[in-house]
Amino acid sequence: MMVNAMLRGLLLGLLSFDSLAATRIAVLDFELKDLTLAPGVPTELQRTASIKPLLEQELTRAGYTVVAIPHPAQQAANSGVGYLFDHADVAAELGKQFQADYILVGRLHKPSFLFAYLMGRLVKVDDGKLVGDYIAESKGPNASLTIKAVESLTGKIDHDLERRYSPPPPAKLAP
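and the corresponding structure tokens:
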């Protein structure tokens, strides 16, 4: 009985330690940089808003702990469009406030009606250094293509961190 209780306590302790050791990533809201002749159309604003929750979902599925940074805190740290994207040190300070290990600053760059690029900059919070710049192409506005681009972005981020992400298999199209 005593040995059984000790084993349970040891297992619980190991599980607790593992959850505390999970890498903590904060994902900021993605910004839209639309260079087309009709910038900021509602469908592009929706697509841009969908990227953060999709990316958080994939990072969680890969075993990372996603750290929430409230929108007002992100806005307070941001001195303008693209500021956090261009200033890793300021993004790192924001991540420190919420005990993140890494912070991802993202942008949906749309140079054409035919394609867009999901761009992300991963910053290590403790030293403010850029870990990586990532780009995933999305051809067309279709939501499933955006999801595939997010999966690609997740794979690239994970490749530089812990290498444990496996994207889901492609969905089969109904006949």
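(Above: one complete record from the training split.) The mean pLDDT is 88.
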